[in-house]
TrEMBL record:
UniProt superkingdom: Bacteria
A Gene Ontology BP annotation from the UniProt entry: lipid metabolic process
Lineage: Bacteria, Pseudomonadati, Acidobacteriota, Terriglobia, Terriglobales
PANTHER family: PHOSPHATIDYLGLYCEROPHOSPHATASE A (PTHR36305:SF1)
Name of protein: Phosphatidylglycerophosphatase A
Organism: Granulicella rosea
Length: 171
């Protein structure tokens, strides 16, 4: 289900690299870890969310709003960063770009309690939707450059958020 291009490993650095775009696009090098850089990006987002929740102990509404703002910021910054890294890598959707997984994972975590069980469910649901890409998620990949790279994962996060909320209400 994962495209061959997404599986490619970055073996040589491009001659020209835009530092800020590579730092954010790879989410501070999480995207360079193997195997499964997307999973590492998602785990990094969960750890950041979990650590923030436990360090600051925000009220549930404040945590939800903060997570939503972080997801929006990652998306808005991720689109140009992903575009630049993809161009400099010479790849349409390079696997080492994981800011899209970070944004999508944060969307999946917006309205769940900040504990490890809920975090694990949010991570699992997001990764399933990100890997299998049911419609209309797959169609969003066709959008140009960084927009397509980012928005399919954001939509996977929306699907995971909805399913997570259903599970939270029923269980």
């Amino acid at each position: 289900m994962i495209s061959h291009q997404k599986q490619e490993r970055l073996t040589t650095w491009p001659k020209q690299r835009t530092t800020w775009a590579w730092a954010l696009g790879t989410f501070f090098s999480a995207g360079l870890l193997r195997p499964g850089p997307g999973t590492y990006g998602s785990i990094a987002a969960v750890l950041l969310w979990f650590g923030t929740g436990h360090a600051f102990h925000p009220a549930p509404l404040a945590m939800a709003v903060g997570t939503g703002v972080a997801a929006l910021a990652a998306t808005l910054i991720g689109i140009p960063a992903a575009t630049i890294v993809a161009r400099e890598s010479g790849r349409e959707d390079p696997g080492h770009v994981v800011i899209d997984e970070v944004a999508g994972q944060l969307v999946a975590l917006i309205a769940i309690p900040c504990d490890w069980r809920h975090a694990a469910v949010g991570l699992l649901l997001f990764r399933l939707f990100d890997i299998f890409k049911p419609p209309p998620i797959r169609q969003l990949e066709r959008l140009p450059e960084g927009t397509g790279i980012m928005l399919d994962d954001v939509m996977a996060g929306v699907f995971a958020l909805i399913c997570g909320q259903i599970l939270l209400r029923w269980l």
